[in-house]
Write a structure and sequence with these properties.
Blueprint lengths: L2 H26 L3 H8 L5 H9 L2 H46 L12 H10 L4 H16 L5 E3 L5 E4 L2 H9 L1 H4 L2 H18 L23 H15 L5 H11 L5 H17 L2 H16 L1
Antiparallel strand pairs: 1-2
Helix pairs in contact: 1-4, 5-6, 6-9, 9-10, 9-11, 10-12
Length: 291
């Protein structure tokens, strides 16, 4: 049965139920309910006499009140629905326009393989670094996929290319079923990049303790970003949910205290991290690796 047929059947069922209720009231009031509905109730003294003489009038008034309430609600929905969807469509179009302004992301990392993504997915809950590393891999994967808009011959937007979702459906169906969770980790990695002030094409995993090439001295931007990451991850508990909530709070403009805290972190590391600090930090990291 089509949707239109179901709607018609439901409307007919409601109409028959109302008719049964009204005919029951007519029988209770000896047929006077039909006259009241057609001609209206009397006014003043005649209405009071009818009210006290016939108990069935109370049932008719209760039914009439329910019927009028349903009519008013139906009219209210008919007015509210186009207004709501007009505003919602305008909001979604504005968000799509903002997304189209973003340039294509770049990364210095190679395209991650299926095995790397699966291994990172299994390790994502072991530490905060593993959670952000998995989101960073999904971001790197997006840089090598096509998720551009699809237009028809007249230039009208008719869709978007598969992107990450299509790649996961084709290569890792198990992760495609967890697409919302995968995108949550990807958004967390992007927000970490925003918090630390890093720019493309530096990947997010470069600021993690095990990230970056072994023989390269990190630039000042990466050193500052790693120091901020230590502040972010140190203030969250061991659970991944706590880390994601803390990251969301730092990029939320309505959380004034967290925004001020993030600004103070950036100012401190902007002033304190110099070339000497960078070299000292690199030696300390090298000493940890070699024991």
């Amino acid at each position: 049965m089509s949707a239109r047929s179901r709607r018609r059947a439901n409307a007919a069922k409601k109409r028959r139920r109302r008719e049964r209720e009204f005919m029951g009231i007519c029988e209770l009031t000896e047929g006077r309910a039909a006259a009241w509905r057609r001609e209206g109730l009397g006014e003043g003294e005649e209405f009071l006499l009818t009210l006290f003489r016939d108990a069935g009038l109370f049932h008719y008034l209760a039914w009439r009140r329910r019927y009028a309430s349903r009519q008013v609600e139906r009219l209210r929905q008919a007015v509210r629905r186009p207004l709501y969807y007009a505003a919602e469509n305008a909001r979604r179009r504005a968000l799509a326009a903002e997304r189209r302004k973003v340039r294509a992301r770049r990364t210095t990392n190679p395209c991650p393989t299926k095995e790397q993504l699966l291994d990172a997915w299994l390790m994502r809950r072991k530490s905060h670094e593993d959670a952000i590393r998995f989101g960073s891999l999904v971001e790197d994967l997006e840089c090598y996929l096509d998720n551009s808009l699809v237009r028809d011959a007249d230039g009208v937007i008719v869709g978007r290319r598969p992107g990450v979702k299509g790649w996961l459906k084709e290569n890792i169906p198990a992760l495609a079923l967890q697409y919302t969770t995968v995108m949550r980790y990807k958004a967390a990695a992007r927000k970490v990049k925003q918090i630390s002030g890093m720019s493309d094409p530096t990947p997010v995993d470069a600021i993690l303790p095990a990230g970056g090439a072994a023989g390269d001295v990190p630039v000042v931007e990466v050193v500052r970003a790693r120091a901020i990451w230590e502040e972010v991850s140190g203030g969250a508990s061991r659970s991944t949910t706590s880390l994601l909530a803390r990251i969301d709070a730092l990029v939320d403009p309505l959380r004034i205290d967290d925004a001020n805290m993030l600004a103070s972190w950036r100012e401190r590391y902007e002033n304190e991290i110099t070339e000497r600090t960078k070299k000292r930090w690199w030696l300390r990291r090298l000493w940890k690796r070699t024991g």
